[in-house]
Amino acid sequence: MRIEKKQIEEVNKRDLKSHQDHYNFLGAQLTNQGHEVDEVVKKLSQFQVAIPSWALGAGGTRFARFSYYGEPSTLGQKLEDVGVLHALTKTAGAVSLHIPWDVPEDYKAISELASSLDITFDAVNSNTFQDQLNQKESYKYGSLGDRSSVVREQATAHNIDVINIGKKLGSKALTVWLADGASFPGQNNFQESLGNTESSLKKIYASLPQDWKMLIEYKPYEPNFYSTIIQDWGTSFMLANACGERATTLVDLGHHLPNTNIEQIVATLMYKGKLGGFHFNDSKYGDDDLTVGSIKPYALFLIFNELVYGMENNPKNPELSWMIDASHNLKDPLEDLIQSLDAIQEAYAKALLIDQKMLKEAQKDNDVTLCQEILQRAYRTDVRPLIAEARLIQGGAINPIKAYRNLGIRQNLINERGANSKASGL
Ligand code: LRH
Ligand code: MN
């Protein structure tokens, strides 16, 4: 399924006048406040987020999985769905593959399809948290950190295979997330597990092409429920430093214990030039993988405040990988991803409206009240006309959810693929 530009133009027609009124009104307001509105819109239009290939079908929990009809059952169909998201939002110009869930059968065909949809391949993800059919060694008790050198070698070899798959697709980054850990005290020797993990990561790093980066993702718990070897940003940061300059830390928003100050972690990693990228999602309790901005939109805004400051003041920090990592138990996966893309753009746009110079002044004067006023003036600005304009000037939809429904995309996918097609992934 492909969305043609003229289909979107048709849907936009009804909203064009009111959009222009809102945009002109907000533009005048922001210009009076000293903002370069065109600059903000340009930054929004250049901001591309990678869609996780494993989140284009219905997710599930250990209790149940309620299928969503017309799911993509091949990598080609997954790229088409990312193409639909990109055609409507113009901010989903990349996909992040998970191996072995998404090993291309025909690299040439997949690359041609991706470029015809104006999609690039962002980080590729290895998977040593599941056993594959006919796999020699099990990852039940660990992988890169396992006490058995045979298991570690198998897991290291898998990560190098993933790099080679990514190279054929033009990817420039490897994401390593390890489920490795223990569910009971005494099960593992912490130092032995950490040491094993460090030496395995170093071996993988040694195989990383010179123009690639390695993203080390941390997580406090699940599937292990007592300890996880790479449990927090500090452990990931330490391992990234042990590996080398192109090893960095990946922040998955759902991988933090309650009330963790994630924006401070972001600032700390950027200060040290070790922030590699994000897995955006939202959560109320654990790694809930909910729609971005659906639970804690202000926290996301504060994170983007640190990102905007860091992108301005930490030149040594590598270019960031912006990716979503979500799971859809109730919503149409494509609508859920559209809402996530919108929330990310909203947080970024609001953060771009923070008067950093005025904030610096107020901080210098310890004018705590004014500091909050400066942040919240930006946060309380309805930036939706800026995001719609950034989409519109690229041929996207003023209101993507409305366009998605008006164009009957889900029904078309069901007609094309049948109701019971099922996506690989989580
Ligand atoms: C682990 C994680 C990781 C992926 C997986 C799909 O919770 O966030 O990024 O490999 O989800
Ligand atoms: Mn993740």
UniProtKB/TrEMBL annotation:
Protein name: L-rhamnose isomerase/sugar isomerase
InterPro entries in the cross-refs: L-rhamnose_isomerase, Xyl_isomerase-like_sf
UniProt keyword Isomerase, yes or no: yes
Keyword Transmembrane helix: no
EC number: 5.3.1.-, 5.3.1.14
Organism: Saonia flava
PANTHER family: L-RHAMNOSE ISOMERASE
Any one GO MF annotation of this record: metal ion binding
Keyword annotations: Isomerase, Manganese, Metal-binding
